[in-house]
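Regression report. Comparing outputs from two consecutive submissions.

Submission 1:
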Amino acid sequence: MATTNWASDASHSDIGFKIKHLMITSVKGNFSKFDASATTENEDFSTASITFSADVASINTGNTDRDGHLQSPDFFDAASFPKISFKSSSMVKKDEENYTLNGDLTIRDVTKPVSLDVEFGGIVKDPYGQTKAGFTIDGKINRSDFGLTWGALTEAGGVVLSDEVKLVCEVQLIRQA
């Protein structure tokens, strides 16, 4: 079988997350600088070996003050831990469109296993002759597991931030020559 290499198409991908604020709404954010790659046997993603990294300093929630706080030692500590990374251990095909992606996620030098739900959108050739594969990736992590433990309480004793963070990603990969 032939090996196929894939690289992220950053201009058509979004690495996002959302977290409950005051437990009544979610705040959304994303990382604007990231890199992902996959190696597969032909175009069968059940054989995929996947790596991913994001620059913590590229975090964007639409609020400059909040982004600065997230980059501080209270949260990601971008100066000491500039990257978030992921390395797959398996990609389990459930049916033609759905997979479970298992691997190790590293945040703040803490590595934990995670399982993510992947919806495979298919493979197409774009107007420029590039072969692309598309994926929707969803999952949940507990931020405290990775040392992201900052918290505060409201006057009534309510939680300001949930421990649960939802990962919401749209990823296009480009087949490499």
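Submission 2:
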Amino acid sequence: MKTQSTFTTMPAAARFAIVLFALLGFAAIVYAVIFHMGFAPGRLFLLMAAASVCSRAKVKFTRTSNISLLTAVVLLAVIQEGLASALIVAVFGATVQSVVPSKKMVLHQLAFNLGMIALTVTATWFTHQSLASTRLANPLSMEAVATLIASFVYFLGNSISVSLIIALTKKMSIAEVWLKHFACSAPSFLLAGLLSLGVVAMFSSQSVAVVVALVAIISLGYYSSVRLMRTPAVQEVGVAK
């Protein structure tokens, strides 16, 4: 979230929501540290490096909101890594995305972004794990379904959370904000999930040429979708994705 107002000038409901998101996000991180603290340092470092680069490669779909390749990197971490690693990658990427462009830190903006991303990634990771662990005759099909549904959960958690803060800040209807400014971004999240799945397949498939071609096609579709999603701006509020 990005806002030109100060925390004290925001409506009380918006301030309460920001604090609540920050606390729940912190609780999600503590849970991951206690119960899911395990990761491969090498892969984690590569994902963090990718998150740092991709957090800056973003495309606006409103004047103040954007989506970037960071979404695909986070979903890749969700698919390949444990909850702790996925949270580290997401929180690191969101921090870079929130702080680096403006070269200053707005604490309530950062608190909301990190809390929101931690909650969203936790829900996304559990969704993917629950579905991917289902034993079917075709594991690849189940992985594709799990990735797409997890991507949709990521989209819902992200877009609804931001819509809520915008609605509380601007005293608007959350449904109006979501339908007008965020519903149209759903395809780009699903394509980001497919892109992350394609990257996984590229390093595990014997048909490398076919997978590379699919990744290229999905990447083009992903880029095109976020370029086309431009709607009128919601003033003074943005989001890290």
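Expected: both submissions complete independently.
Actual: both completed, but the second showed a warning that disappeared on reload.
Relevant detail on submission 2: The chain has a mean pLDDT of 79.
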